[in-house]
Specification:
There is one protein chain. It contains 16 helices and four strands. A hairpin with a 6-residue loop joins strand 3 and strand 4 (255-259). The model is unreliable at 420-426 (pLDDT under 50). It has helices at 3-32, 47-78, 83-95, 99-131, 139-170, 175-198, 211-224, 260-265, 268-283, 286-308, 312-316, 330-340, 345-370, 373-386, 395-401, 407-417; strands at 205-207, 231-234, 245-248, 255-259. By secondary structure, it is mainly alpha-helical.
Length: 426
């Protein structure tokens, strides 16, 4: 049998088995520790909160397993069952060949994928998040967000998609370099535009108004030598009770954003510590480093596709009639890329997650140098409790999927930085 049939099928099945194995481990481990708060957190986390976090984690993991099974079925439906070929033939019958048909093929492919995931999004929001008191989004707001996302995808993505397909059809064998460059420009422009243009379409962002807190923030910024576009408070409470803060943007557009739920949860000193953590991500250049990884993975994916696209077996192995050349059917080639690349995710995710966890440790260390480690430790415990994050994840599952270390690991590192009284994470 052709390698182009066997390899994707092997990656699909192996990835699915890894996800199932890890997910079942996580469920068993969390349930086993559900009724006992870890000794290090007995004074800080009530048993009811610990059990709520355990039940939420189990529900989210079960949802992840169901989503993985459905994703596998979608892949088989598009490829081996022949969904891509049927869609392409139908559009070719109505639109003929050419750039318009290619664009509409990819638009239809993306639209079908989004429609198929709508029930999953609804279930996650109105069944899981609602059940644990974490969702504050109305059905109307949820639907409005979906419509806005689709319109933005159309407005921004359609011209980019059209340009990419035109390049693939015109520049010959070096198409992947041009597509790579176009993708990178798109990502960089999005980072510039997102904070000031896109994000405000979904949330209100207001400058920090509290004078005493603003004074503390200004003092911390000066100590850290940080020049910023602004520090904003986002009305996240309209959609969720989750608390968080994040650093966004590049160059002059960079800003720090606090969820309003975070400000209502933490003390001023704890907010200082969380802000110092976010500044640590900036000072340690985590955003450009992560972008570098994304650029590299994108380039490798496109280069690999350029090689596979010249082999007829790449198409026939995935249930598609091969084109005479890639410039005759670039849309079909890109659709296969979108389907095949995620098959490698289970094998890449532990390395990427490990890198991201290391970034969190570095940001924590920076916060320990410029704020009080005890305050950061207290804030972390409150955030884990508020967000229903389990204190007892399965160690192997965590290594594969978690971009953040466990709270116990973070407190151990903080204790090494500061001799302040921090809950013993043993």
């Amino acid at each position: 049998m052709d390698i182009f049939f066997l390899l994707p099928l092997f990656l699909l099945l192996a990835g699915l088995m890894i996800r199932l194995w890890l997910g079942l481990r996580q469920i068993r481990h969390v349930r086993r520790h559900r009724d006992t708060v870890p000794l290090a957190f007995e004074k800080h986390v009530a048993l009811a909160d610990h059990q709520r976090a355990a039940d939420y984690t189990v529900s989210r993991t079960q949802f992840m397993l169901a989503s993985a099974l459905l994703s596998a079925l979608f892949f088989l439906g598009w490829t081996i069952v022949g969904g891509l070929g049927l869609l392409h033939t139908a559009l070719e019958r109505f639109l003929g060949t050419g750039l318009l048909q290619q664009v509409m093929f990819l638009v239809s492919f993306i639209l079908v994928g989004r429609i198929l995931t709508v029930p999953l999004s609804w279930w996650a929001t109105f069944r899981i998040e609602d059940r644990f008191g974490l969702n504050r989004r109305s059905l109307r707001l949820w639907m409005g967000d979906g419509v806005k996302s689709f319109l933005l995808l159309t407005l921004i993505g359609l011209p980019t998609l059209t340009a990419g397909l035109w390049l693939m059809g015109e520049v010959g064998q070096t198409w992947w370099l041009w597509a790579w460059g176009l993708t990178m420009v798109f990502i960089l422009l999005q980072l510039q535009v997102y904070p000031a243009v896109i994000a405000p379409l979904f949330n209100d962002f207001k400058p920090l108004r509290d004078p005493s807190l603003q004074s503390r923030v200004d003092s911390l910024m000066r100590r850290c030598g940080f020049v910023f576009k602004g520090l904003f408070v986002m009305d996240s409470s309209r959609r969720s009770s989750h608390g968080n803060a994040y650093f966004t943007g590049l160059g002059p557009s960079k800003r720090v954003v606090f969820f309003d739920t975070l400000l209502s949860l933490l003390s001023p000193a704890e907010i200082d510590a969380v802000l110092a953590h976010e500044l640590g991500h900036f000072r340690r250049r985590h955003i450009p480093k992560y972008l570098g990884i994304i650029f590299l993975l994108t380039g490798v994916s496109l280069a690999g596709l350029s090689l596979a696209a010249n082999a007829p077996g790449f198409y026939t192995g995935l249930g598609v009639t091969p084109p005479s050349s890639i410039d005759q059917n670039p849309a079909l080639t890109l659709a296969l890329l979108v389907l095949v690349v995620p098959l490698f995710a289970p094998f890449i995710s532990p390395f990427l997650a490990s890198y991201l966890r290391r970034n969190e440790f570095e940001a924590d260390a920076y916060a320990g140098e410029h704020a009080n480690s005890e305050d950061l430790a207290s804030a972390l415990i409150k955030l884990y409790r508020n967000n229903a994050s389990t204190l007892t994840p399965d160690p192997i599952y965590m290594r594969f999927y978690h971009s953040h270390p466990t709270v116990a690991e973070r407190l151990r590192r903080l204790r090494a930085i500061d001799a302040a009284v921090i809950p013993n994470a043993g």
